[in-house]
Amino acid sequence: MTLPRVAIVGRPNVGKSSLLNCLVGRRVSIVDATPGVTRDRVSAPCPLGDGYMELIDTGGMGVEDCDNLTDHVEDQITYALATADLILFVVDAREGIVALDRKVAARLRRQHQAVILVANKMDLLDMPSEIYEMHSLGFGEPIAISSAHRRGVHDLRDAIISHIGQAEDKPEKLMKLAIIGKRNAGKSTFTNAIAGEDRVIVSSTPGTTRDSVDVTVEIDGREFTLIDTAGVRKRSRLKDIEFYGFSRAMSSISRSDVVALMIDATVPISQVDKKLVSEVVEQFKPILLVVNKWDLAVDLTDSEEYAEYLGNEFPSLTYAPISLTSAIDGDNVRETTGLAYQLFEQAMNRMTTGELNRIIHDILELRGPSHKTGTRPPKILYVAQVDTCPPTIVLFVNDVRSFDRSYQRFILNQLHMRTPFSEVPIRLIFRNRRDTKRKTAAETDTDTKKIQTLESDPETPGLTDQ
Questions:
Q1: How far apart are alpha carbons 28 and 117 in whole angstroms?
Q2: Chain-centroid distance, C-alpha 110
Q3: In a domain, 459, yes or no
């Protein structure tokens, strides 16, 4: 069900991104004093009354982008205005009305949608002269708010409801596919190719995307959310604004269901790629290796040779599928989203206890754990799946010391081959059965969180190159 769309517009630095974050209740857009931080249109479901609306943040009108992306930013603003059901026109009450505000007002008067004038940064309760001046913009009485201090937000919500009515119910949970990778790997081009429109700005200038941009699309009758993220590079080289983008990229991994690591086929795998993989593995997220710009590399190598190369570079991802694409030509793009959905479904599978115990019995028949001096003869007493996303399997044993890392990895590899979880990470927990009898529920839950990351090396590589 499509949510009503409310676009936030205005000149630079009037607090549009702060307003979106305030209404949504979490940090979605980057907030910084630098003009022109927001470039793409950033959207998020926002609570409204008993339902939800889609709130859209836009770049500042009239800003001259430092990377010559002004026309692209304007295109994103134009699209947001054209598709909005309601427009929130934000002005800075402390600065008063300036010439650029009047230009924005003239543009909005040509729109067919209703406009609510929002006087932001009303940190003082009594500012009558500033409010009076805003009437000259032609949009009636402004709603006075301070998004930084959450003043006047209730009045603004009531005004929005009076224009668009009660919003729709919150949409059902959709698969969230985060697209991560180094700068200029083609993430935004890939996002636009899937969306079928210029949803995010694409430029050869590295670092064009600063925010994490959510895009809801439907392919073959299935809706899902793409998360286009800022390109990652070495931490020491990050500028102030880039650091926000880096942080959002990391948080996008956390809130995603599946991660697509965008790899530029024309350049070697770097420590940045390996760092990103380490982040994904640590969080047990299903990952798809998307090799972009394959059209430029196809004459230099073949698919089998490149897959072997990726296996050597990412030894912890032997289970992860690989997709060879050319986002700019649209080659294999739709098929890649199909692969991502398969991973999503795998991670949501739940096996019965009987099935798992039969599989473990067969694995033990193939190879049992070694009996180490000073420990009891090793036994796996009971196996159960306790969670999904990631599939989490607890093995109750008589002595965890008998199950070394090598044997745990053996069991993990066998489970990948014998269960529906062949292409997604599996979280294994080994627990002494005798210990569980003495544990409280809270202690048992704490133990569940103390997991062994079996798919990665104990040392996490740092960001050492671009």
A1: 22
A2: 35
A3: no
